[in-house]
Design brief:
The complex is a heterodimer of chains A (254) and B (102). With 254 residues, chain A is of the alpha+beta class. Chain A contains six helices and ten strands. Chain A has a five-stranded antiparallel β-sheet. A five-stranded antiparallel β-sheet of chain A has the order 2-3-4-5-8. The chains are: A alpha+beta (254), B alpha/beta (102).
């Protein structure tokens, strides 16, 4: 019997095992921090193999929290599996997921989602967005890029919604930082929020302070620091499920 | 959340304030139905005094949108989103679903 760790969803466990495969095959490493507000979370994340050089990467945040959000999350996870043949094409994949999910939800329910395909041969990330907070790409020399948002609305609201394809470079020694909106919607003990600009500033500051450290080590250290800050200053005031993910690209072993 | 309503000409205005609560869903449905039976043609949600809109807040907008679905001559308008509310509207591309006066 699988023992579910405290405040972790079953989906997260599945995704963690998948990521081990990705780490071995695509030369990436992943760090995740997830905190459910009430035992079960509507957030989930993960990745899966598409081809020898491509893998899919996603983060989902269902509105609300607790049992209902977790059940919806499980349904969406099932939908993602059912149309995985489209996963190579992020815009088409998202369009179909939205149409299917629309039939399952009530009018006020929705999910935000980022889905991208990393191609390690082309050093690219093709992606589409559905109302998720902007993903951040961290460069080897401390650059911080906020990925452009697409035109997509959250999933499950409008069956005719369009999802466009975006593209970004994603090189070895770079990282992607994915997060749910609780990161920028939670006050700290002083009543202050983190916003996108503050987040980028934190990353730049950390990179400057540790510019002589190997990029991968620096990303991991930065993530560890961020989790510590969240635990210390923000988690007591959390009002939604929180997920932070860091995906780092390493040079492929020859 | 506090909902303060007022009628100005053809606009049925709802000034939003405070934090969302699950009981707000029924309030929004009730307000939207009152608007439908009024002579007004636009239901305006005014966000000027709101500093944060959480996922439940977005659900409230969707609920009003759904309640108005198919009601000819009745519009929903979101007005004055500022700060984090404005940011959330942008990230959600909410203007693709509902008219927004930025």
């Amino acid at each position: 019997m699988v023992k579910i760790p405290y405040k972790m969803t079953p989906l997260a466990i599945i995704d963690q095992s998948m990521f081990k495969q990705l780490e071995e095959e695509y030369g990436v490493s992943l760090r995740v921090f997830s905190q459910a507000l009430s035992g079960l979370s509507g957030d989930f994340w993960g990745g899966f193999k598409i081809s020898k050089y491509e893998f899919g990467l996603y983060i989902v945040d269902f509105c609300g929290h607790g049992m209902v959000a977790a059940l919806h999350a499980a349904r969406l996870y099932g939908l993602m599996e059912s149309c995985v043949e489209l996963a190579k094409y992020p815009d088409k994949y998202m369009t179909v997921l939205n149409q299917k999910l629309y039939t399952m939800l009530q009018a006020h329910e929705y999910a935000t989602m980022f889905y991208g395909v990393v191609n390690i041969r082309e050093n690219s990330l093709r992606y589409t967005t559905a109302g998720n907070p902007p993903i951040i790409r961290l460069g080897e020399k401390g650059q911080v890029h906020m990925l452009k948002q697409g035109i997509g609305v959250p999933l499950g609201i409008d069956p005719k919604a369009m999802y466009d394809l975006k593209e970004s470079r994603f090189l070895e020694h770079e990282a992607l930082f994915l997060y749910s909106d609780a990161l920028i919607e939670t006050k700290n003990y002083q009543g202050q929020y983190l916003d996108d600009a503050a987040l980028c500033h934190l990353f730049k500051e950390h990179a400057e302070l540790h510019k002589h450290v190997d990029a991968s080590d620096r990303f991991h250290q930065m993530f560890k620091n961020m989790v510590s800050v969240m635990k210390e200053h923000y988690l007591p005031y959390l009002e939604d499920d929180l997920t932070l993910c860091l995906l780092v690209r390493h040079p492929l072993k020859k | 959340m506090q909902f303060n309503t007022a009628i100005y000409g053809k606009e049925y205005k709802v000034y939003l304030e405070g934090q969302t609560d699950h009981s707000d869903c029924q309030t929004v449905v009730d307000i939207t139905k009152q608007f439908i039976s009024s002579g007004c043609h636009t239901l305006v949600f005014d966000f000027k005094k709101l500093t944060l809109l959480d996922s439940l807040g977005v659900s409230l907008i969707l609920l009003a949108r759904k309640t108005l679905d198919g009601k000819k001559g009745k519009l929903l308008l979101l007005r004055h989103p500022l700060g984090k509310v404005r940011h959330m509207f942008k990230v959600f591309n909410i203007d693709k679903l509902v008219r927004v006066e930025w």
